[in-house]
């Protein structure tokens, strides 16, 4: 194709191929652009300057929007339907009015709705609706007009498929649960310096932590603040009544069993918090020599899902019985008494596991459950415990000095085998926490930023 310049005025989806560099650029929104030396594939109607060109016979863009064949309003005018070749996209009209994108209703700068609900007409109805090219225009009974682009509407379609996609890709991310056999395959390691310096490595680490519930950051400098620097690369350290950081070292007269050198049984941290810390980061500065001091992990969601499938009665008891979790003690002179009632296995509204609470030392002797349920609960939790400790589910490994073990504290249970310090070498770990709200937020921001820079690089 000879060198040429094209001005694309508007389109639905277009793939531009630069003939010189052979780079591809996928354009997904309507705007005017100038392209030099390109061939192009356009999905739908478009204009090229003033000159109309036919829809390309080349391969169509997979991301292309569906053709809209007709637009209909329900008799009550509460549903607007857009018919495509193989689907009908329906939108509640009250939702459309509520989500009007005009500057009076929506502030683009803050990405916030500014409609005053104190003055909003909740009985508002469309007087007319029309679709011109890729834009839907609605005239409303409250003397307002709204315009929506087709892209924007399709992105927010109420179909089950679209809602599921949003839930699994943007709201929460898909998880892969594991037993002992798969652990080695899923445990990924990330270089500390690279995580601090490269956004792509930071994203890879956080995605791995989210998906598998565990990842190791390696080559960490033996400094007390290395862990905190890592959390601040994501967001900020989650403070608890043990402070911003906690030191795991054998010490006499401790108020927490983690600070003994004896075996630390499997547990989740701080189940007595309503807002339990999301992810645990344990920096190994000094490891014990010889036997002992090994870390133990098991995937509580994996075991929970096994129970759901094979022992549904036990699963039900563990998801329905409220347990009293507590922590009473003092740290740096400050006394605390934390309490939280929650089941061992917590589900969301979809029946998916979202949190495991498990800590023998931090379970109160008050047990606010009906008498007959208590006995059944012991049977069920006995089975759950046995499975967590079984070789099929339980992994043991020894952290190296300079490792930060990062794991999902709402999903994995962790423990440690007993160890003995040798003279001059006291096992030392510094731990801190991050909340999932902050990790998810960082992942979403990074994904957007990296996608954007990737697209920009394509054209260069
Ligand atoms: Zn408006």
From TrEMBL:
<feature type="domain" description="TauD/TfdA-like">
    <location>
        <begin position="181"/>
        <end position="433"/>
    </location>
</feature>
<dbReference type="InterPro" id="IPR003819">
    <property type="entry name" value="TauD/TfdA-like"/>
</dbReference>
<dbReference type="InterPro" id="IPR050411">
    <property type="entry name" value="AlphaKG_dependent_hydroxylases"/>
</dbReference>
<feature type="domain" description="Gamma-butyrobetaine hydroxylase-like N-terminal">
    <location>
        <begin position="75"/>
        <end position="153"/>
    </location>
</feature>
<dbReference type="InterPro" id="IPR038492">
    <property type="entry name" value="GBBH-like_N_sf"/>
</dbReference>
<keyword id="KW-0479">Metal-binding</keyword>
<keyword id="KW-0560">Oxidoreductase</keyword>
<dbReference type="Pfam" id="PF06155">
    <property type="entry name" value="GBBH-like_N"/>
</dbReference>
<comment type="pathway">
    <text>Amine and polyamine biosynthesis; carnitine biosynthesis.</text>
</comment>
<keyword id="KW-0408">Iron</keyword>
<keyword id="KW-0223">Dioxygenase</keyword>
<protein>
    <submittedName>
        <fullName>Gamma-butyrobetaine dioxygenase-like</fullName>
    </submittedName>
</protein>
<comment type="similarity">
    <text>Belongs to the gamma-BBH/TMLD family.</text>
</comment>
<keyword id="KW-0124">Carnitine biosynthesis</keyword>
<dbReference type="InterPro" id="IPR010376">
    <property type="entry name" value="GBBH-like_N"/>
</dbReference>
<dbReference type="Pfam" id="PF02668">
    <property type="entry name" value="TauD"/>
</dbReference>
<dbReference type="InterPro" id="IPR042098">
    <property type="entry name" value="TauD-like_sf"/>
</dbReference>
């Amino acid at each position: 194709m000879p060198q040429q310049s094209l001005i694309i005025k508007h389109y639905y989806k277009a793939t531009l191929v630069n003939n010189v560099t052979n780079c591809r650029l996928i354009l997904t929104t309507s705007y005017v652009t100038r392209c030099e030396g390109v061939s192009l594939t356009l999905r739908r109607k478009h204009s090229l300057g003033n000159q109309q060109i036919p829809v390309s016979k080349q391969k169509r863009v997979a991301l292309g929007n569906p053709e809209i064949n007709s637009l209909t309003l329900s008799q009550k005018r509460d549903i607007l339907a857009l018919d495509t070749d193989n689907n009908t996209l329906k939108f509640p009209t009250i939702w459309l009015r509520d989500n009007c994108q005009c500057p009076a209703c929506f502030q683009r700068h803050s990405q916030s709705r500014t409609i005053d609900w104190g003055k909003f007409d909740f009985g508002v109805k469309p007087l007319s609706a029309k679709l011109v090219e890729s834009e839907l225009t609605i005239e409303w009974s409250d003397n307002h007009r709204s315009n929506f682009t087709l892209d924007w509407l399709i992105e927010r379609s109420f179909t089950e498929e679209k809602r599921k996609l949003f839930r699994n890709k943007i709201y929460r991310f898909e998880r892969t649960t594991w037993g002992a056999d798969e652990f080695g395959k899923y445990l990924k390691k990330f270089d500390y310096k690279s995580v601090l310096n490269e956004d792509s490595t930071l994203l890879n680490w956080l995605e791995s932590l989210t998906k598998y519930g565990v990842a190791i950051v390696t080559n960490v400098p033996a400094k007390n603040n290395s862990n905190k620097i890592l959390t601040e690369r994501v967001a900020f350290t989650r403070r608890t009544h043990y402070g911003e950081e906690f030191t795991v070292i054998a010490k006499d007269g401790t108020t927490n069993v983690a600070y003994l050198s004896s075996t630390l049984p499997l547990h989740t941290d701080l189940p007595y918090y309503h807002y339990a810390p999301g992810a645990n980061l344990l920096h190994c500065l000094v490891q014990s020599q010889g036997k002992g001091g090994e870390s133990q992990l098991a995937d509580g969601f994996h075991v929970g899902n096994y129970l759901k499938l094979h022992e549904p009665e036990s699963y039900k008891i563990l998801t329905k019985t409220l347990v009293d979790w507590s922590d009473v003690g003092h740290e740096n002179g400050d006394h605390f008494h934390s309490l939280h009632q929650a089941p061992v296995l917590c589900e969301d509204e979809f029946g998916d596991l979202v949190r495991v609470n498990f800590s023998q030392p931090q379970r109160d002797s008050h047990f606010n459950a009906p008498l007959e349920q208590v006995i059944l609960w012991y049977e069920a939790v006995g089975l759950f415990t046995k499975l967590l400790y079984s070789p099929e589910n339980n992994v043991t490994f020894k952290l190296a000095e300079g490792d930060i073990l990062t794991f999902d504290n709402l999903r994995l249970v962790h423990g440690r085998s007993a160890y003995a310090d040798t003279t001059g070498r006291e096992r030392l770990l510094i731990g801190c926490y991050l909340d999932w709200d902050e990790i998810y937020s960082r992942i979403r921001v990074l994904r957007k930023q990296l996608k954007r820079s990737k697209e920009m690089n394509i054209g260069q």
